[in-house]
Amino acid sequence: MGLLVDGKWQDQWYDTKKSGGKFVRQASQFTHSIGPDSEFQAQSGRYHLYVSLACPWAHRTLILRKLKQLEEHISVSVVHPDMLDKGWQFATAENPFPEATEDHLFGASHLHEIYTRAEPEITTRVTVPLLWDKKTQQIVNNESSQILRIFNSAFDELTGNSDDYYPEALRSEIDEINDFVYDNINNGVYKSGFATTQEAYSEAVAALFSALDKVEDILSKQRYLVGTQITEGDWRLFTTLVRFDAVYVGHFKCNIKRIEDYPNLSNYLRELYQYPGIAETVNLEHIKRHYYYSHTMINPTQVIPVGPELNLDGPWQR
Ligand SMILES: N[C@@H](CCC(=O)N[C@@H](CS)C(=O)NCC(=O)O)C(=O)O
After folding, report:
1. Is 81:91 a contact under the CB 8 Å cutoff?
2. DSSP, res 197
3. 115 and 61, same structural domain?
4. Nearest CA to ligand 1 atom 9
5. 154 and 183 part of one domain
6. With 80 as the cut, is the pLDDT of residue 28 above it?
7. Which parts of the sequence are marked as the site Lowers pKa of active site Cys (predicted)?
8. DSSP secondary structure string, 27-39?
9. Is the minimum distance from the CB of 144 to ligand 1 under 6 angstroms?
10. Ligand 1: distance of its center to the CA of 128 in Å?
11. Are residues 202 and 155 in the same domain?
């Protein structure tokens, strides 16, 4: 784990000293869009997505890529789940992992090489997801929430798929629930797990479970977060829920309850997991391995728990 400073890799864990033990997530640096008004046009085969199957932020983009039938238009490289002293690395013949790949574009050994290829003097954290433009050799975007919006609509003419996960009429409701879910749940699990003081941890975990209680209540009255229609808000929540009982309960100490203990959240989770195409985007082997093996500050033995038994394929009722 580390970051690039002036284009040089530095091995360094998140610095929580300045923030009283709290984990503060940094803003993403590349925020271009794709479309007629952009230098980045929607073209088949032009873009490449770098992801980790373990990462909830990258997972969202894989879900939209699948739902919007973009797989044949946007190629993908999948990093190895072990994110160690040089950050995200690619699989190699000596260091393979099922479903992890090499860097299909440049044969790089680490993801930070892709960032410095775009900007040799860059100072940044080296995160997934990352959307790369093969034509201009630039990074288009490394902010998952924006990549979702790009995938939702920018390639519709190419694919003929106009399914809309951010419909105009629901935008303000989606924005509102997204902000709440992001701050308290998506990022809330990280704020709990990466906290380095009791106070910071206790505060984050209380906010997390109060938010889960609120979402449980919403889902007791309606099928999806903003009503009867599935939207990006649901997919953004899903990628945290599907990791929760397997990793966040134990590794991040988010253990007041499990998702399985919430009747509506657990049924909703199973419904979304079984939505056509989604289960194949979920890789629990990468998920468990990444968190338990990479975060040696939290789990220095790197021992990966065997359980829990999950029931994602079980029946659901909504
Ligand atoms: N704001 C980014 C966050 C992405 C992110 O933090 N990804 C994690 C993996 S789950 C990462 O690559 N972390 C490496 C680091 O922070 O050094 C997004 O949503 O796209």
Report:
1. no
2. S
3. yes
4. 55
5. no
6. no
7. 248, 291
8. PPS-B---STTSS
9. yes
10. 5
11. no
Domain count, the chain: 2
CB atoms within 10 A of CB 193: 21
Q: Is the CB of 61 under 6 A from ligand 1?
A: no
* Sign of the four-CA dihedral 196, 199, 204, 209: positive
Q: Could you say which of 159, 181, 197 is where a domain stops?
A: 159
ipTM topping 0.95: yes
- The pLDDT of residue 167 is above 80: yes
Read off the pLDDT of each residue in 242-252 and give the average, rounded to a whole number: 98
What local confidence, expressed as pLDDT, does residue 13 receive?
73
Instruction: Report the share of the chain in percent with pLDDT over 70.
Output: 100
Task: State how far Cα 256 lies from the chain centre.
Answer: 23
The chain-wide mean pLDDT, for the chain, equals 96
Copy the structure tokens of residue 238: 């899903």
Residues 6+ away with beta carbon under 8 Å from 206? none
Per DSSP bridges, beta strands 74-78 and 47-51 are parallel
Tens digits of per-residue pLDDT, 183-226? 999 999 999 999 999 999 999 999 999 999 999 999 999 999 99
Q: Identify which of 51, 67, 80 has the alpha carbon closest to the alpha carbon of residue 141.
A: 51
Task: Specify whether the CB–CB gap between 306 and 99 falls below 8 A.
Answer: no
- Examine the domain organization and report whether 145 and 48 are in the same domain: yes
pLDDT 10s digits, 89-102: 999 999 999 999 99
Which helix (H) or strand (E) element contains residue 124?
strand 124-125
* Alpha helices (runs of H) in the chain, residue ranges in sequence order: 56-67, 112-118, 144-153, 156-159, 171-181, 188-193, 198-221, 232-243, 263-273, 284-294
Q: Which of 47, 50, 55, 293 is catalytic?
A: 55
Token match 């373990």: residue? 54
Which domain range does residue 246 map to? 168-276
Rounded to whole angstroms, the Cα distance separating 234 from 269 reads 10
CATH of residue 138: 3.40.30.10
